[in-house]
Amino acid sequence: MSVSLQFAAPGTDVAFLVARALFGAVVAFMGLNHFLNVDQMTGYAEMKGLPAPRFGVVFSGGMLVFGGLGIAAGVFPTVAAGAVALFLLVSTPLFHNFWAVPEDQQQSEMTDFLKNTVMLGGALVFLALSAVSWPYAVGIGLF
After folding, report:
1. 34 touches 57 (CB < 8 A)
2. Residue 42's CB: how many other CB atoms inside 10 A?
3. Cα–Cα distance between 5 and 141 in angstroms, integer?
4. Cα(101)–Cα(103) distance, rounded to whole angstroms?
5. Of the candidates 29, 27, 37, which has an alpha carbon nearest to the alpha carbon of residue 58?
6. Tell me: the pLDDT tens digits for 19-31?
7. Which of 46, 65, 99, 107 is deepest in the core (most CB within 10 A)?
8. How far is CA 21 from each of CA 72, 99, 123, rounded to the nearest angstrom?
9. pTM assigned to the model
10. In terms of Cα–Cα distance, which of 74, 60, 101 is closest to 20?
11. Alpha-carbon dihedral of residues 21, 25, 26, 31, nearest 10 degrees?
12. Domain map of the chain by residue range?
């Protein structure tokens, strides 16, 4: 049994599609950035104490590309949104611990922490809505 997401106001299906496309594209771009800057990001991950930093950068980049494209297209939305949420849940306090860095780095780390927190909220919304069929979605999923 499949339940469809039905919005009451006209045009909200399109607004939801645009929101998915924007959110998914930004997340996928973040993942692509992991691959384009793997050496730089590996150094940062190593500095932050991540075990197997290069593997972590590449693996998390894959999670973000898959998650972003999956949210945008509506393909495996539960897994896609879950991958993004998991990445943000782990990486936000680990890499953007503004409370534990020197004062000259605190503002930048806090900005990144808050950006990731907002994105985590968005990922959780898409995860919560992933149990229903999304309008204008490819519609391939586990449920």
Report:
1. yes
2. 19
3. 15
4. 6
5. 37
6. 999 999 999 999 9
7. 65
8. 4, 33, 13
9. 0.90
10. 74
11. 150
12. 26-131
